[in-house]
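S.,

As promised, the protoporphyrin IX containing FE run. Input:
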Amino acid sequence: MSSATSVSASAMAATSSAAAAAAPPCRLLGSGQAHLRLPPPAASGRRRLLLRCSASGGNNGKGGGGDGSDPILEERRRRRQAELAARIASGEFTAQGPAWIAPLAAGLAKLGRPGELAAALLTKVAGGGGPEIPQAVGSMSAVTGQAFFIPLYDLFLAYGGIFRLNFGPKSFLIVSDPAIAKHILRDNSKAYSKGILAEILEFVMGTGLIPADGEIWRVRRRAIVPAMHQKYVTAMISLFGEASDRLCQKLDKAASDGEDVEMESLFSRLTLDVIGKAVFNYDFDSLSYDNGIVEAVYVTLREAEMRSTSPIPTWEIPIWKDISPRQKKVNEALALINKTLDELIDICKRLVEEEDLQFHEEYMNEQDPSILHFLLASGDDVSSKQLRDDLMTMLIAGHETSAAVLTWTFYLLSKYPNVMAKLQDEADTVLGDRLPTIEDVKKLKYTTRVINESLRLYPQPPVLIRRSIEEDTLGGYPIGRGEDIFISVWNLHRCPKHWDDADVFNPERWPLDGPNPNETNQNFSYLPFGGGPRKCVGDMFATFETVVATAMLVRRFDFQMAPGAPPVEMTTGATIHTTEGLKMTVTRRTKPPVIPNLEMKVISDSPENMSSTTSMPVSAASIASGEDQQGQLSREKFSGHSPEMMASGFSSISSRRLPSMNVDARHRKGQSGRRGVRRLAGGILLGPGHVAVDKPDHPDLWFGTEYRPAGR
Ligand code: HEM
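Predicted complex:
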């Protein structure tokens, strides 16, 4: 859910251009350091702290990607943290509140009801009396010039699970405590809205699922969640494989030409291509071309990010918003996207009308398994505008998040060659040289753990945004309505109390035979997809997508940071971006081919077997020889490819032709004339060349939200 992230930054930024001016002056302490003034935790409510907060990252996060792998940066970070802790402990930053408050308040309280009220007001204003949320008072310069969530980490270490961050008239509650996060996201979620997030994203997502609140959200979530059923996600595996294969071909060329590649933008294109097909059956083909619509999508995304981080909301200034060239470009981009979406909706409506429709819970059209098709086929009674908002929301939600996960995963892999080697071993053994199936994905357990761990270190988004719409109590502190809250997933995921070696990329921390880590089994210390009723609807989709792409890329290539590549630092956009891209040298792997003994689904060509899939072990060696173990597939089926080429490991030959030819044969024999869902025993035919099994039998690999709205 990409754009959530940014808004947090922006939320501070956008609301506080004035705030920055009104805030206490930020006394520079030296390069990159700024003061933040903090009163102490509740227990010592009358005291105030003056805290030095490093504006250069001050923690595990800045430079080197914050993964703990760069010893110099690590050492610097440790020293900064130790210094900060020692100074806080010494009381250097602590100032006593005025000593006259308590006696004066006591005197006032003796004057009856009005006096009591005045005493309460005085103690509140002066910071005395009952429990008060610790406060950090600062200027924008303390949090700008770097990814905004980084200084929040220092403050969290100093102040703990909940504190208030004040910028002039604006304040935010920063939550980094799992129990409080659970309360807001799950246990009392009705008391919170999306607040600033909805305001900033309105121009692009309207009342789509991410910004929507209340009844609109409830109705739309109930319509959309069923579209992402297990069969749909299973069907998407071949889409992920094909898109990743196109990326491999691009990298192949770069490897041959000896050119370095900027992986962040390639991952962005990969996931755009995937999500376009998955959500509304549109092939952006952005890995191949830069056409108008691809550019329009990027213009819109960048605008959302700009709005999220801009201190001045220029897009709201009367007249300027109509004449600014930037806004004109954004409006044109939005108009093009809307027109395209309207056309796609019309085409899909026609298809549904012509279809011999038998709608059921796991309905899926094999020619067009998209979410849009499901929604229209389900008879979803919705306006075209709402449908467009939903599609646009999912396009954005599912695009930059997955791209960011892949970017930071590959960055981490370049820093941890031992993890890369293990990953490659697994990919070799499980995949051989074919497109992954759902069965393969279930076996890619280490790859899944790598993604789990990458999401721990680089959560996308790093902060979740809420606004209280009722009074509540958080961590023992009463809070009023209208509080803007940032739940720092970054802090939760790197909390030194909860995680051993919190900054170290260690996929082994998640046992291979253990359950897939999620917010429930980690008790809200790990929230890669949020939690509660607003949990990501694309969690399974995204995990499979990133697992497939990672496995396919590493089995074919080695990845290293390109010589002379700029340092990889973080900045906040819709998700965590790199500041200057992820420039890598990609080399084709020279490993000898692995000869695994794999279980592959093979569908016999014979008419008797048309309606069933049979599973038989097929070794890579037999694939290489052009035969399966029953000798059913002859060399001619691999026409044009010599056995030597077949055996040469990760060549351009793909043994995925093996099952696909059988499926094609079924098409030729006229078994697929009827429109609608065709069920095969144990599998579903998705189109030429694609077979996906019906239900995976490893529940731990189904990450599905256990939280569905009532009525599902
Ligand atoms: C690795 C990739 C992804 C990550 C890390 C991710 C993360 C998240 C998170 C943390 C939330 C909760 C936001 C909040 O509570 O404020 C969320 C919500 C959402 N995500 Fe994802 N997401 C990913 C991929 C996807 C994909 C592929 C889709 C769609 C196909 C999607 C659709 C959504 C939607 C619609 C919501 C809003 C749900 C609601 O409010 O009811 N996400 N996502």
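Residues 1, 4, 209-210, 221, 393-394, 397-398, 401-402, 405, 460, 464, 528-530, 534, 536-538, 541-542, 546 surround protoporphyrin IX containing FE (CB under 6 Å). The chain has 24 helices and 21 strands.

- D.
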